[in-house]
Amino acid sequence: MKHKRNSTKKRIVKQYLNGTSVNLLAQDNSIPVSTIYSWIKHYGPLRAKYVPRHSEKQYAILKAEYDKLRHMYGIRKEFDNYHKDSRRRRLEFIYMNKEKYGVHALCEALEITRASFYRYERYISIPTWYEDRRRRVVDYVIEIFNESNGIYGANRIAEIVKKKYNEPVSKGYIRNIMSDLGYYSKHSIHKRETELRAYMRNTNNLIKTFEVMKPNELWLTDCKKEYIYVEKKYVTICTIEDLFSRRIIAHSYGQTESARLVLKTLRLAVELRKPEPGLVLHSDRGSAYRSKVFNDYLLRHGIEHSFSKPHHPKENAPMESFNALLQFEAIAHNDYSSVRAFKQKISDYIYRYNNELQHSRLRFMTPVEYEERYYAGVKSHSKHRDRH
Q1: Phi, psi of 184 (to 5 degrees)
Q2: Do 222 and 370 belong together in one domain?
Q3: What is the mean pLDDT of residues 74-83?
Q4: Stretch 117-130: mean pLDDT, rounded?
Q5: 3-class secondary-structure state, position 238
């Protein structure tokens, strides 16, 4: 079949629109019926697409679904991060807002079954036996504490409750109740204030406001104990780290965390680095670091001692971080045949840490490389200053 011109196609479509049947047009022009239909579709008038209409019932269903989704969105917006909160928190939120949103919508929005919520509602509405008992004991504690003018502590009150009211209670149970009530014995308050004053006298934390600008300004030290199962012996590792470059500048071994061990490590560091007076050494409050022989050595060499607060290891965080690395990379995954093999492995790891391991705080340089870059910069700066 030869290719028809657009004018011919339009003429045939116009004849169809004027009432001539497709079959007759196909016979007269020797064209397939399907071709004429395709021309009609292409050149004929545009027709609106059929849009099905919903019944009133279907519309009501769609509207209810839309209202439900909008309702759920409002609930989840008010209870932010609902999927991260615990199941109990979600149940409490449903209980507090059931009048506002309704139980069905809340349960569906927060992914809690209604049976679970109703079970929770029954649980909180009926007081349990231990809640009744706690209310009784609270009344006893208030009465006894006031009668003693705030002198009796948890131990005495527990004994009185057992004897006078025949209520079996422990000292810890009474102590928790007194803590909730804000009751403290006058004796314990005096003791706590005395301990606080002693703590304030002995606290000497210098690193909180200390900015390290060069090597040998601030050293950190700590001890770590490990058990060697083969020889059934403890080995204590004492290390000193320069905070400027995070370099381990000295380490030594002993059986316990003794004054002799920490002093030996400090002597090694001082002989190696020869620091100027004004160096600060930060440690925890262990007895070895508070010993007279250790602090006398610090005074003789012009080193100031800084302490962490009791129970605050984060103040010595860089040293603790190194100990964690040492534990994970050198100790945890190795079985040592002897104490000698253990010491050799630790020494090898410290050498590798200083010379090969890159540190993110040091712009991904090794501690040794970081110090070398610093001294090279100081040297070039002094030469430039001499020229001018």
Answers
A1: -135, 135
A2: yes
A3: 70
A4: 75
A5: strand
pLDDT in tens, 178-227: 888 888 876 655 555 454 445 445 556 777 666 788 899 999 999 998 88
232, 304: one domain: yes
The domain in which residue 236 lies consists of 218-378
Query: Within 246-366, where are the H helices?
Result: 259-273, 292-300, 317-326, 339-355
CA distances from 347 to 179, 216, 312, 337, 376 (A): 50, 22, 28, 16, 28
Distance CA 7, CA 301 (A): 109
Q: What are residue 206's phi and psi, to 5 degrees?
A: -100, -10
Across residues 36-45, what is the average pLDDT? Answer: 79
Report, as an integer, the average pLDDT of 92-99. 83
- Number of C-beta neighbours around residue 173 at 10 A: 18
Domain count, the chain: 3
DSSP for 284-304? ---TTTT-HHHHHHHHHTTPE
CATH number of the CATH domain containing 365: 3.30.420.10
130-139, pLDDT tens digit by residue? 778 888 899 9
Q: List the one residue out of 146, 140, 159 whose CA is nearest residue 185.
A: 146
Give the strands of the sheet with 218-228, arranged side by side: 247-254, 233-242, 218-228, 280-283, 304-307
Q: Which residues contact 362 (CB under 8 A, 6 or more apart)?
A: 245, 246, 369, 370
Question: Within this chain, do residues 188 and 227 fall inside the same structural domain, yes or no?
Answer: no
In a domain, 52, yes or no: no
Query: What are the tens digits of pLDDT across the range 17-30?
Result: 888 888 888 888 88
Tokens of 160: 């009185």
Q: Which run of H or E residues covers position 307?
A: strand 304-307
Tokens standing for 168?
């079996």
Per-residue pLDDT tens digits for 279-303: 999 998 888 988 889 989 999 999 9
